[in-house]
Write a structure and sequence with these properties.
The protein is an alpha+beta fold. 45% of the residues lie in helices and 13% in strands. The chain has helices at residues 13-16, 26-35, 40-52, 56-68, 74-87, 89-102, 112-118, 134-140, 190-196, 207-212, 236-242, 251-257, 260-272, 278-287; strands at residues 8-9, 107-110, 128-130, 144-147, 153-158, 161-167, 221-224, 229-232, 244-245, 275-276.
Length: 296
């Protein structure tokens, strides 16, 4: 649990054990696609056989390749969605991570998924942080859409599901130049908005800078599938063991930047049965009036 860049091995192997053959499947799945360039039914039959054998990673590769070829037939899309639902989120996120690694980008599972897996909870979201910029991500995935106004995010679509991929960012200290105030800040003066609330979201950074701009230590853990290790820059592992909600940096400053963080702290503590760090609790009491500034 030492703070810093040194990865700490953690027993999350259960998440990836069944996906170990992903890279080895490339030759076989490409041969199958070449054998049936205009025959989705053949691909689905192969996927069904792979699923019955428990080989979900190879089935995933087949489906992604089929969808990337631009199949638009309603029946085909419906069957794709059905298979994606059966395969599950683990495989989809691993596919995205593997592709980014193949093109020499840094990419980790980030945030809530790492926290929840460490706590033995079923993750709700499988989010990815990467050194790739949004349109570099889009270049690697034909099933990718760029979304967001304040910050550009990539959504890599698998049927009706999507994996959210965000470029590592850094927090620009108040007073430094930025791209200008955000329209969502309401009636606040430009000076107040510039100094207090986060609206410099398109400033890309390193994984470490990205960790330090997050809200709480337990939400700032990264998981590297390459060596199955946790990367902890902020002491999040220690706080998970202690079951405490602790801000990254000064709690008052962080709640001034984004008042909604006060609500997140309380919700997280209640959901996970954690306690609030005393500085967090004190800052909520002194800064609660700022919730009126929060976006609806």
């Amino acid at each position: 649990g030492t703070v810093g860049a040194r990865p700490e091995p953690v027993a999350l192997d259960h998440m990836l054990d069944e996906l170990g053959e992903l890279d080895k499947a490339i030759t076989e799945y490409e041969a199958l696609i070449r054998a049936a360039p205009n025959n989705p039914q053949f691909v689905f039959e192969q996927c069904e056989a792979l699923m019955q054998r428990g080989d979900r990673p190879r089935a995933m590769k087949l489906l992604v390749e089929l969808e990337a070829r631009g199949q638009t037939d309603e029946e085909v899309l419906s069957r794709l969605a059905d298979f994606y639902g059966r395969i599950g989120e683990n495989d989809r996120s691993l596919k995205v991570l593997t592709r980014l690694h193949e093109f020499s980008y840094t990419a980790y599972l980030v945030g809530g998924i790492v926290r929840d897996l460490l706590l033995g909870r079923r993750p709700k979201d499988f989010d990815i942080g990467t050194s790739a910029h949004p349109y570099q991500i889009k270049k690697q995935f034909r099933n990718c859409w760029i979304i967001g106004r304040r910050f550009r995010l990539a959504h890599v679509k698998f049927g009706d599901k999507a994996i959210e991929v965000a470029t590592f960012r850094k927090l620009i200290p108040a007073g430094e130049p930025d791209a200008g105030p955000d329209e969502s800040l309401g009636d606040l003066s430009p000076e107040t908005a510039r100094d207090l609330l986060i609206h410099r979201d398109n400033t890309f950074g390193t994984p470490e800078e990205d960790a330090f701009r997050r809200d709480f230590t337990i939400n700032a853990l990264f998981y590297d599938i390459a060596d199955r290790s946790i990367i902890d820059y902020v002491g999040g592992l220690d706080d998970i063991r202690a079951r405490v909600i602790r801000s990254i940096g000064d709690s008052i400053e962080r709640f001034q930047e984004d008042p909604v963080r006060m609500l997140r702290a309380v919700v997280l503590a209640a959901r996970l049965d954690f306690t609030l760090d005393p500085p967090v609790e004190a800052a909520i009491k002194s800064q609660r009036h700022r919730l009126a500034q929060a976006s609806p």
